[in-house]
Automatic annotation (TrEMBL):
<feature type="transmembrane region" description="Helical">
    <location>
        <begin position="7"/>
        <end position="34"/>
    </location>
</feature>
<dbReference type="GO" id="GO:0015648">
    <property type="term" value="F:lipid-linked peptidoglycan transporter activity"/>
</dbReference>
<keyword id="KW-0812">Transmembrane</keyword>
<feature type="transmembrane region" description="Helical">
    <location>
        <begin position="322"/>
        <end position="342"/>
    </location>
</feature>
<keyword id="KW-1133">Transmembrane helix</keyword>
<dbReference type="GO" id="GO:0005886">
    <property type="term" value="C:plasma membrane"/>
</dbReference>
<feature type="transmembrane region" description="Helical">
    <location>
        <begin position="392"/>
        <end position="413"/>
    </location>
</feature>
<feature type="transmembrane region" description="Helical">
    <location>
        <begin position="164"/>
        <end position="184"/>
    </location>
</feature>
<feature type="transmembrane region" description="Helical">
    <location>
        <begin position="54"/>
        <end position="76"/>
    </location>
</feature>
<keyword id="KW-1003">Cell membrane</keyword>
<keyword id="KW-0472">Membrane</keyword>
<feature type="transmembrane region" description="Helical">
    <location>
        <begin position="425"/>
        <end position="446"/>
    </location>
</feature>
<dbReference type="GO" id="GO:0008360">
    <property type="term" value="P:regulation of cell shape"/>
</dbReference>
<dbReference type="InterPro" id="IPR051050">
    <property type="entry name" value="Lipid_II_flippase_MurJ/MviN"/>
</dbReference>
<dbReference type="GO" id="GO:0034204">
    <property type="term" value="P:lipid translocation"/>
</dbReference>
<feature type="transmembrane region" description="Helical">
    <location>
        <begin position="495"/>
        <end position="519"/>
    </location>
</feature>
<dbReference type="GO" id="GO:0009252">
    <property type="term" value="P:peptidoglycan biosynthetic process"/>
</dbReference>
C-alpha cells in the first residue's frame, strides 16, 4: 500500500500542477479569442476538439482498457514482454499515421457534421484551423501509447507531468499571438491566414512536445523497442478482439458528442455554446483529473494484477477501498465548486456579466462528478478481467440518453419553451443524467458478475461525506456573499475570479474536513497519508 500511496501522491502533484497550468492556459486563451458570444472561440473549439474526437475512436478503449492489462500479462513472458510491446508499438504507430492522414483529408466533412448549423464563414474558419489541429491525433496517440506502457511498468510520474510542458508552451504562444495581433480576436473576420497558422502551430506543437518528453523516460522501462511488422504469434489477435468492443464504444461516444455540439452550435453568437461547454467541462474535469486519475490509476494497475491472478476477494477489496477514497476527496471538491461556481465561471468569460450564464452550464455538469468516479473504477474492473463487451453495453445506454436529451433541448428551444441562452445548460444536464444512469447500470452488472462489490459499504461512506459537504457548501456560498456576490470584486476580472474561487474553496474544504473529523471518518487517514507524502521529512 505504501507504493500505491507514493504513486498516488506523485500523480496527484503532477496532475495538480498540470491542471493549474491548464487553468492559466485557458485564462490566456479566453483573453485571446473570447468564450461567450464569441463565434471565433466556437470555431476554434470545434477544430481543436476534432483530433480528440478522432483519436478517441482508436485509443479510448484500446489503450486504457486493453493495453495495461495486456502489458501486465506480457511482463510474465520470458522476454519480459519485449516482443509483444515492439509489435504493439509498430502497429500502433502505423494506425496513428494512417488515421491522421485520413482525418486531414476528411477535415471539411468532419467540420460539417459537427458544426453544420453554423454560418459558412464560421465553418470555413473551423476548417482552416482543423488542418493545423488534426496532426495532434498522432502525437496524442504516441503520448498515450508510451504513457500507458510506463503506467503498466509502474512508472507513473512522467505521464502526469508531461502536460505541464504542453501548457507552458501554449501559454507562451497565446501571449505572443496577443502581443502581435491584439486581443480579443472574437470575430471570424479577424482571423487572417497568418493568425490561423500561429494558433495552429502553438496548440499542435505543444502536444508534440508533450509526447516527446515521455519518450525521454522510455529507458526506465528497460524494454528494447524496435520496429517489428510481424504481427502474428504474440497475442495481438486477443488485443484486436478486445479492442473491437471498445472501438464501437468510442464511435458511439464520438457520435453522441458530435450531435451535442451540433445542437449547441444553435446558440453560437447568442449565448453559451460550444466554447463555453468546453471550458465548463474543463472545470468539471479539474477535480476529476486530479483526484480520480491520480488515485485511480495506481489502483487500476494493482486491480489488473489481482484480476489476472484470479484473486477475486482482493479485487472486491480494491473496488470498495478505491471508491470510498475517491468519493471522500471528490465530495469536498464538489461542494467547493458548487459554492464557487460563479467566480469560477468568471475565469472563462471576458465580461463579468457573462459569468452567471457560464456558471449555469458548469452547475448542470456537476451532478455526474461522483457517479463518474464510481464508473471509472467499475469500468476498469471489467477491463481488468478482459471484458470490454459489458462496458460497451452500458455505454450504449449512456450515448442513447445523451442524444435523446440533446434532441429534447433542441425541441424546447424551437418551441420557445426555454431561451436559446439556456440551451447549453440543458444539454449539459442531460449528459449528467445519462452518466448517472450509466453508472447505476454498470454497478449492477459488476455486482452480478463478482457476487457483490461492497456497494452498501461505499454507499454509506458517500452518504457520510454528503452530510459534511452540504453545510460546507453553505459556508462557501456565505463566503461568496460576503465577498460581494455578483456585484463584488471577485467578478471584476478573470484573475480576481480565480482568487475569489480559491478563497471560497478553502473555506469549504476546511469546514468539510473539520466535520468529517468530528464524524471520525476513517477515510481521513488517506488525506493524512497524502499530506505526509508531500510534507518535507525531518
Amino acid at each position: 500500500m505504501s507504493s500505491l500511496g507514493r504513486a498516488s501522491a506523485l500523480l496527484a502533484a503532477g496532475t495538480m500542477v498540470s491542471r493549474v497550468t491548464g487553468l492559466l492556459r485557458t485564462i490566456v486563451l479566453v483573453g485571446l479569442i473570447g468564450a461567450n458570444r464569441a463565434p471565433a472561440a466556437d470555431a476554434f473549439n470545434i477544430a481543436n476538439q476534432l483530433p480528440n474526437d478522432v483519436y478517441a475512436i482508436i485509443s479510448a478503449g484500446v489503450l486504457t482498457a486493453v493495453i495495461v492489462p495486456q502489458i501486465v500479462q506480457a511482463a510474465a513472458h520470458s522476454d519480459r514482454g519485449n516482443a509483444f510491446i515492439s509489435k504493439l508499438f509498430t502497429l500502433g504507430t502505423v494506425v496513428l499515421l494512417i488515421t491522421t492522414a485520413v482525418a486531414m483529408l476528411a477535415a471539411p466533412w468532419l467540420v460539417w457534421i459537427t458544426f453544420g448549423r453554423a454560418p459558412e464563414e464560421q465553418q470555413a474558419l473551423a476548417i482552416a484551423l482543423s488542418y493545423w489541429c488534426l496532426p495532434q491525433i498522432f502525437f496524442y496517440g504516441l503520448y498515450s501509447l508510451v504513457g500507458e506502457t510506463l503506467n503498466a511498468r509502474r512508472i507513473f510520474g512522467p505521464f502526469t507531468w508531461a502536460p505541464v510542458a504542453n501548457n507552458v508552451v501554449s501559454i507562451a504562444g497565446f501571449l505572443a499571438i496577443g502581443a502581435l495581433f491584439g486581443t480579443p480576436l472574437e470575430q471570424v473576420n479577424q482571423w487572417t491566414p497568418d493568425r490561423i497558422a500561429w494558433l495552429g502551430v502553438t496548440v499542435t506543437g505543444a502536444i508534440a512536445i508533450q509526447a516527446g518528453i515521455l519518450l525521454a523516460f522510455w529507458p526506465r522501462t528497460q524494454l528494447r523497442l524496435r520496429p517489428d511488422f510481424r504481427w502474428r504469434g504474440v497475442g495481438l489477435g486477443n488485443v484486436g478482439r478486445m479492442a473491437g468492443w471498445t472501438l464501437l464504444m468510442a464511435l458511439m461516444g464520438l457520435a453522441a458528442g458530435i450531435y451535442q455540439n451540433n445542437v449547441a452550435s444553435l446558440a453560437s453568437g447568442e449565448g453559451p455554446s460550444v466554447a463555453v461547454m468546453s471550458y465548463a467541462w474543463l472545470v468539471f474535469m479539474l477535480p476529476y483529473s486530479i483526484i480520480v486519475l491520480s488515485i485511480g490509476t495506481p489502483y487500476f494497475t494493482q486491480l489488473a494484477e489481482h484480476a489476472h491472478a484470479g484473486d477475486h476477494d482482493q479485487v472486491r477489496a480494491d473496488i470498495s477501498r478505491s471508491i470510498r477514497i475517491l468519493a471522500f476527496f471528490l465530495m469536498g471538491a464538489l461542494a467547493a465548486v458548487v459554492a464557487a461556481v460563479v467566480p469560477t465561471s468568471r475565469v472563462f468569460t471576458t465580461v463579468g456579466s457573462d459569468a452567471p450564464d457560464t456558471a449555469l452550464v458548469l452547475l448542470a455538469y456537476l451532478p455526474a462528478l461522483i457517479p463518474l468516479a464510481v464508473l471509472f473504477i467499475v469500468q476498469r474492473t471489467f477491463y481488468a478481467y478482459g471484458d470490454t463487451r459489458t462496458p460497451f453495453l452500458f455505454t450504449l445506454v449512456q450515448c442513447a440518453l445523451i442524444v435523446i436529451t440533446a434532441f429534447t433541448a433542441q425541441l424546447l428551444v424551437s418551441a420557445d419553451a426555454i431561451p436559446v441562452e439556456n440551451l447549453a445548460a440543458v444539454i449539459a444536464l442531460g449528459q449528467a443524467l445519462a452518466s448517472t444512469i450509466q453508472t447505476i447500470l454498470a454497478v449492477w452488472l459488476l455486482h452480478r458478475r463478482l457476487g457483490g462489490i461492497g456497494t452498501a459499504t461505499w454507499m454509506i461512506a458517500i452518504g457520510r461525506f454528503a452530510v459534511a459537504a452540504i453545510p460546507a457548501a453553505a459556508a462557501g456560498w456565505g463566503t461568496y456573499l460576503l465577498l460581494g456576490g455578483s456585484a463584488g470584486w471577485a467578478l471584476a476580472s478573470q484573475l480576481t475570479g480565480a482568487l475569489g474561487a480559491a478563497i471560497i474553496a478553502a473555506v469549504v474544504l476546511v469546514v468539510y474536513i473539520g466535520l468529517l473529523a468530528l464524524l471520525r471518518a476513517p477515510e481521513l487517514d488517506a488525506l493524512k497519508g497524502l499530506v505526509r507524502r508531500f510534507a518535507p521529512s525531518r
